Amino acid sequence: TQNPVFSDPYAFDLTSKGWKKLLSSPLIVKVMNSAVLNRTLGLLTGQVVGRSRYAEDLLDQAVQQNTQQYVLVGAGLDSFALRESHHYPTLKIFEVDHPDTQAAKQTKLKKLGNIPATVEFVAINFEKESISEALNRSLYDSSAPAFFSWLGTT
After folding, report:
1. Beta-strand (E) ranges in the chain?
2. Residue-wise pLDDT tens for the chain (154 aa)?
3. CATH, range 11-149
4. Is the dihedral angle over the CA atoms 97, 76, 73, 113 positive or is it negative?
5. Total Cβ atoms within 10 A of residue 15
6. Which of 95, 62, 94 is nearest to 76 (CA)?
7. Domain residue ranges in the chain
8. Neighbours of 135 (CB within 10 A)
9. Measured in whole angstroms, how far is the alpha carbon of residue 58 from the centre of its chain?
């Protein structure tokens, strides 16, 4: 697509081996893109893509108003730091997530290249502590404006 709503060139590399295998099969991709599945799974995909685009558009507005901290709660395999950090060289990015999720992600990120210096991984056990408690262990400045996104945790 010439002007996609959202483009993530790192999604395939960050996904699991199982998904990579599925997505490498032309037949599976054809089935996934079929009209039947697009009427069901397409709704979910559209929601995920739409909320990511919306959040990043709002982040851009916040940065234009001098917000210099971006907190991704439940960052998972979000690739913002790889895709967009070069557009925001002074934006400090805090990825807040479970330590196991972060370890797996960091392993994949290192294979793709350098993890941007503006990224700080903040480990949290969502069941035992608050986001503010986790951020207190980081370089996050609670006295400065920040943009928060919480796009998906289970």
Report:
1. 69-73, 92-97, 119-123, 147-149
2. 577 777 777 777 788 888 788 778 888 777 766 666 666 666 566 677 788 889 999 999 999 999 999 999 999 988 899 889 889 999 999 999 999 999 999 999 888 877 899 999 999 999 999 999 999 999 999 999 999 999 877 6
3. 3.40.50.150
4. positive
5. 14
6. 95
7. 11-149
8. 21
9. 15
